[in-house]
Amino acid sequence: MMPRIGVVTFPGSLDDRDAQRAIRRADGEPVALWHADHDLQDVEAIVLPGGFSYGDYLRPGAIAAVSPIMTEVVAAANRGLPVLGICNGFQVLVESHLLPGGLIRNAHQQFIRRDQKLIVENADTAWTHRFQPGEEIVIPLKNGDGGYIANDETLKYLEGEGLVAFRYAGVNPNGSLNDIAGLSNERGNVVGLMPHPEHAVEAGFGPDTPEAMRSGIDGLRFFESAVEALVARAA
């Protein structure tokens, strides 16, 4: 059987269907989860997608973090369930205290959309083990509140424990401290990042590469990593 991976839809989610499609392309079974429910439907992993949950009122991700479904997501993540937060989903993970720090308005105060180079820093998580440490990948980025911040103590902790999952390469698009584009928790089951891997899963619809226009599929390996880990766990 294909691993069942839930995708949460909040009011204002934009990329939930894209995440479901990415899961299918990685040979997983996407399961739609609703923000107002407490039922995780026995999924084996969860994706919190991009968008503007609850209109980004108060702070991006702040209201979603206290939605009914997140009570269950936080408890499941603390038990070891793999959880991936993409863009607004990363903001929700931070607001839920599953990952440390905060995300604020981009340094230039403008929404940005670009194909972004990243350096893989941590390839030892449920969502990144199909990458190599130090590998450069290209993932689409689109956000207005993507500047990662944390105090000095937290930054030292993240760096010292190897919990920075991805860094921006070539250009820091939003002023994130230490060029941080994504994080992992210590257990390696929770990963959050600002760029959108679900938009780089099929040739013809991804970023440009030296080989061909729109041919980049680096994002697919996020979902393949999770599916592979879940299949191995079930074996």
From TrEMBL:
Its main location: cytoplasm. The keyword ATP-binding applies. It is found in: Cytoplasm. Its EC number is 6.3.5.3, 3.5.1.2. Signal peptide: none annotated. It catalyses: L-glutamine + H2O = L-glutamate + NH4(+); N(2)-formyl-N(1)-(5-phospho-beta-D-ribosyl)glycinamide + L-glutamine + ATP + H2O = 2-formamido-N(1)-(5-O-phospho-beta-D-ribosyl)acetamidine + L-glutamate + ADP + phosphate + H(+). Pathway: Purine metabolism; IMP biosynthesis via de novo pathway; 5-amino-1-(5-phospho-D-ribosyl)imidazole from N(2)-formyl-N(1)-(5-phospho-D-ribosyl)glycinamide: step 1/2. Keywords: ATP-binding, Cytoplasm, Glutamine amidotransferase, Hydrolase, Ligase, Nucleotide-binding, Purine biosynthesis. The keyword Ligase applies. The active site is at 87 (nucleophile), 196, 198. Part of the FGAM synthase complex composed of 1 PurL, 1 PurQ and 2 PurS subunits. Part of the phosphoribosylformylglycinamidine synthase complex involved in the purines biosynthetic pathway. Catalyzes the ATP-dependent conversion of formylglycinamide ribonucleotide (FGAR) and glutamine to yield formylglycinamidine ribonucleotide (FGAM) and glutamate. The FGAM synthase complex is composed of three subunits. PurQ produces an ammonia molecule by converting glutamine to glutamate. PurL transfers the ammonia molecule to FGAR to form FGAM in an ATP-dependent manner. HAMAP family: PurQ. This is Phosphoribosylformylglycinamidine synthase subunit PurQ. The lineage of its organism: Bacteria, Bacillati, Actinomycetota, Actinomycetes, Micrococcales. The gene is purQ.
